Amino acid sequence: MLDNATTPSAGRPSALPTLPKAPSGIDGLDEITEGGLPLGRPTLICGGAGCGKTLMGIEFLVRGILDHNEPGVLMTFEESAAELAANVTSLGFDLPELQARKMLRIDQVHVDRSEIEETGEYDLEGLFIRLGHAIDSIGAKRVVLDTIEALFSGFPNQGVLRSEIRRLFHWLKAKGVTTIITAERGEGSLTRQGLEEYVSDCVILLDNRVIDQITTRRLRIVKYRGSTHGTNEYPYLIMETGISVLPVTSLQLNHEVSDEIVSSGIPALDEMFGRRGYYKGSSVLITGTAGTAKTTLAATFAAEVCRHHGRCLFLAFEESPQQLVRNMQSVSIDLAPYLASGQLHIEASRPTLNGLERHLVTIHRLIKELKPAAVVIDPISNLISVGNLGEVKSMLIRLIDYLKVNNITALFTSLISGRNVQQEMTEEGVSSLVDTWISVRDLEGIGERNRGISILKSRGMSHSNKVREFLVTEEGIQLLDVVIGPGGIVTGASRLTQQLQEQAQLLAAQQELERKDRELERRRRVLEATIGNMRTEFESVEEELRQINTEEQARQQALAEGKAQFTQPLPPQPAGAPSHHA
């Protein structure tokens, strides 16, 4: 029992088959549909005029032919083949060439209500035969019907109409072709008839709205039988290369990270980071009030990237490329050679030129074309003029995620108003999303204005907690050493005063030290003289004692010799000599 319980396959059901899907090839749509449209089933695309229903259907066919070698049939009930071909030429689609290759079949069906005589037996059998022949003639795998309202305009009887709609959808499903059916939006329902959305396996709603004089197209998947899908509204654009859907929440936080370090271009600023710079692929935000050198810091970073043979994309929302190059030359940042070599690309425009989604798509396109190592946006706060705070934050979240996935180092600047300086929060609300946050601010003193820079956060590395004063000089940005006075860190004229006081104190201390050295030398000489006198006196006493000792030794020797002579015995006397005793 224990062995069976621990067997990996024991008690586990086999994996269920997933719903087969046909990739649409439309940028972003396959992400939110998790693979594409339902294979062999009908998909309904509905929306108002000008939202791109026909273009989405044609791109679905063209991408199927070019990317997956799947022939397609386009049956149109309003526009002719020549009109459709001319309309999509601006997107780079050559429909006549695809028709010549027998990969695309375009069939126009003209429906005139005045020519239709409704009878009890009237149906769409002739259409089925015509459509079936078109499918079989090229072995089509994909079909687009544009638009269904024109097809059913000749059915005043709602009972017949609803019956024929159901029969059309069932016939397409039985045919096994992946179909897109376009329909106009009705009042109070997704379509005019209010039935197509119920018999379709997948329903995509397109919307074209105008907010604050800015047109925005949005897409929403209303339903998708047998598959999970994104449920939010997603902005989409009709670009020169086709339709691009911009998913907001489809990107997953599972991108690779790098331990490589990228310099800020300012050695003193790099030293404030524990790893001496930014992580490659990270996002950096520089915030500050007007005139705090945010653009100069951004241009310094861009020049540093180009100096190490990397490419940099610089999006300027306030200055033209010529003005930016000229202004940076005043601080010894020469961007002209990098522009000429193609290492630096400056995209300058007012934010109000396009909507947020078009700005995002433009950035995506430039990144795909240039493949830069870094992207600079100066400033992101100007995007507030294009959309509300929520839309700007959503756009920046998508941009930051996109750059991280592609391991591109991003640097943003943002203007903060005076009321937000104390809170140190950006209006866009992206300060919590970035990896590194640098704050530049005014350090106002008495009668002067100075600049200070500090690091508020840097994920993954230690960093300095000091506010460093910096100068914008003809040689670039120069960070000054921290000077601490009685009341804390001082800047500007107070810094000079404090430095003069410290220099005076240092000079006084040095002079006092020199005076003490001289006094010590004098005392040393006095002591040495005293020692010399004492040595001389000692030598005199020593000489005197030596002399006394010599004399005493001579006296003792003489005394000893005299005593020896006195105690010596007399010599013997001859006989008869008189005795001294007598």
From TrEMBL:
Recorded superkingdom: Bacteria
Keywords of this entry: Hydrolase, Kinase, Phosphoprotein, Repeat, Transferase
One term of GO molecular function: hydrolase activity
EC number: 2.7.11.1
Coiled-coil features, chain-numbered ranges: none
Cited InterPro entries: AAA+_ATPase, Circadian_clock_KaiC-rel, KaiC, KaiC-like_dom, KaiC_dom, KaiC_N, P-loop_NTPase
Name of one Pfam family that matches: ATPase
PROSITE patterns, per the entry: KAIC
KaiC domain residues: 20-259, 260-493
Region (Disordered): 1-27, 542-582
PANTHER family associated with the record: CIRCADIAN CLOCK OSCILLATOR PROTEIN KAIC 1, PTHR42926
Protein name: non-specific serine/threonine protein kinase
Lineage: Bacteria, Pseudomonadati, Bacteroidota, Cytophagia, Cytophagales
